[in-house]
Amino acid sequence: MMEHPSLDSMMELQRFPQDLRSLMLLLLYTPIGLCLLLLRLFVGAHVFLVSCVLPDSVIKRFLMRVMTSVLGVFTSESESHVRDKTVKICVSNHRTYFDHNVVGLITPCTSPSLSCSPGFLCWARGFLELGAPGSRVQLQESLKHYLSQSGSLPLLLFPEEETTNGKTGLLHFSSWAFSLSDAVQPLSLLVQRPLVSPVVTGCTWVVELLWMLFVPFTIFHVRWLPPVTRHPKESDEDFASRVQKLMALSMGICGTNHTTADRAELLKRRNWEPPPPAPSISSPTDSRMVQRVKEVLPQVPLPVIYKDLARTGCVDTTITNLLEGRVPFVSEEEASGRSEASTSSNRPTKCVIRGFGRRPEDRHLSLQERKEALYEYARRRYLVKFGPLERVDEDGAKC
């Protein structure tokens, strides 16, 4: 028995390829892709007008396939099985936001929108308008009424309700799609695209449309499966599960119990995932780093030094941050209420004025203090590394 894949493996979370060679090819192709994008936006407007003017027919679908090929969208159909026109319900796996448009180029069908409100946008994207999106019960009643009308087009439904990468598994099939009829015809949809992923989970349909017009081409391959009929006394849920397994088997993947709610929860957790904690200062070497900063800047509290060293991991960077005022702090002398006169005689380096002074005298004093502190720090480091300076008098003797 094949093990169910994880939900992560069923979603495409990265747009760009990971290998260096593919990234370089994408970079070299970018100027060409931008030119194609601009050209295809102009051609796409004409394709939209043609789709609005011509009535649904074989001639319209042929012209649309030719014109969409100019947009880089190519469709192919498997010859192993054909579309059974007596079946009014087709079910497919969900790969992109444009699956219903692509299948509509091959066979006459229409799809209801589960999220798009009725209006121009819903109509322009090729969805069947059934009123405002409501409960699944209302959707079922609306679709049953639509199918009861003479001359209505077959329905293309996506029981997964959300897109997946189609590589490892199918989402749990919603049973409402199988309550409309006792016979459905499944189809599997394979999408191929060079350079970048066909769809990235969480992106909007507008972004995906622009990427489709940017890439050289996108191939949609439709494979029809034989119609499936409901068994006697078989529930909608069991009927949906059986069709899911048949489709997954034909695609070489698994049918899973992951739902659209699980998918939404996973995306929510990934978007709100907290950043990794900063490394702690605990080793003897790190303690010596803290002591070195404390020797140069004794007025800085230890918690401030620990926090910045945990972030930078470098003594020189932490000292520079403290001297330049990038890390605000209150000196230990100020916290204990000592006067400025008493503290200035005991500290080897002066407390740096943080911020940008309002008066020129304050700004000059702050700059001078920083220079003195940096000079003192450099002198200390030289003494530790090379020892005291040796002088030579006029007779050549060291002193």
TrEMBL record:
Keywords: Endoplasmic reticulum, Lipid droplet, Membrane. GO terms for molecular function: ubiquitin binding. Coiled coil: none annotated. PROSITE patterns: CUE (PS51140). SMART domains: CUE (SM00546). This is Lipid droplet-regulating VLDL assembly factor AUP1. One of its GO terms (cellular component) is lipid droplet. It is a peripheral membrane protein. Belongs to the AUP1 family. One of its GO terms (biological process) is ERAD pathway. Pfam families: CUE. Plays a role in the translocation of terminally misfolded proteins from the endoplasmic reticulum lumen to the cytoplasm and their degradation by the proteasome. Plays a role in lipid droplet formation. Induces lipid droplet clustering. The keyword Coiled coil does not apply. The lineage of its organism: Eukaryota, Metazoa, Chordata, Craniata, Vertebrata. CDD domains: CUE_AUP1. Residues 285-327 form the CUE domain. The keyword Membrane applies. Residues 268-287, 331-355 are annotated as: Disordered. It is found in: Endoplasmic reticulum membrane; Lipid droplet. It comes from the Eukaryota.
